């Protein structure tokens, strides 16, 4: 009973809320010397905002990233926005990366749970080795648990 | 001290002293055990509002505000952000309740996990009639120490007049739920 938990002053945590690193699992791999593939595995009941996704790479720059279309959502406060659920794949073109080079992919993301909570903007980074031309795509590198705002 | 007798006493005490030491050891173990139990109970209930009331943060005019100034009120401390739709959604009700229950001793305080300019804009838009303090993104860490293990928003802590935490909520506080809680805490006072 909500009332019982309420009276006892217990933390009113909605059931089954995941920590952000499980709600929005971030990984990436190199597809070829000129392209990284960033991937978010968004857990059921959670969503990411399309307009809050940002990608940059270093030391080589990322070209303009074409974000895939999201699912339209009308938000009372933010107007018409697009959200991502499930598996989200984003191609991040690299500018002048050399085979064997290690590129750092920075991703900013922000999402919420349908249960009515939102997680803070989450800057994450992954190090990806650039493959030789003609080589098979690299393995996914996954971001681990980390603190916010590092 | 280089008194050999003293060393002897310390390493091999006479019977009556040994008895004392055993007794003292038992008492110490008992004290430690009790301490463990007490601290665990404190942790589970986490009703101590001193951490919340000990916070000092700048307001929208960049003046430092200590939450301790509202000790004795039924204090609703709401962590929120402009980027959090569920937070924005529940705030107009907080504004209405602040107006309705201020004279009875209810005080809302918002702690924004956000940038000051965005907070100002939204506070004006909604007509927030209670203090909004700027916690920045560091306020998420602050809320973690208060029980917000998932670092999510909105997160609200209600402190009663005696300074004890009466309720902690991750996710929106439904209007009916908030009204019932405040009614109970105001009656108890």
What does this entry look like structurally?
The complex is a heterodimer of chains A (150) and B (189). Chain A has 150 residues and is mostly beta strands. Chain A has two helices and twelve strands. Chain A has a single domain (17-130), classed as Immunoglobulin-like (Sandwich). Helix content of chain A is 7%, strand content 45%. In chain A, strands 5-6-3-9-10 form a five-stranded antiparallel β-sheet, with no helix packed on it. Chain A starts with a helix and ends in an 8-residue tail after the last strand. Chain B is 49% helix and 18% strand. In chain B, the strands form two sheets. Chain B has a five-stranded mixed β-sheet, sandwiched between helices. The longest helix of chain B has 31 residues, at 15-45. Residues 1-45 of chain B have low confidence and may be disordered. In chain B, strand 6 and strand 7 form a beta hairpin.
Shape of chain A: elongated
On the 0 to 100 scale, the average pLDDT of chain B is: 82
* Major β-sheet annotation of chain B: 5 strands, mixed
**CATH homology-level superfamily of chain A:** Thiol:disulfide interchange protein DsbD, N-terminal domain
Counted beta strands of chain B: 7
Superfamily (CATH H level) name of the largest domain in chain B: Glutaredoxin
Helix content of chain A: under 10%
Which architecture name of the largest domain in chain B does CATH use? 3-Layer(aba) Sandwich
Element-by-element helix/strand order of chain B:
HHHEEEHEHEHEEH
Largest interface, Cβ cutoff 8 Å: A-B, 29 and 34 residues
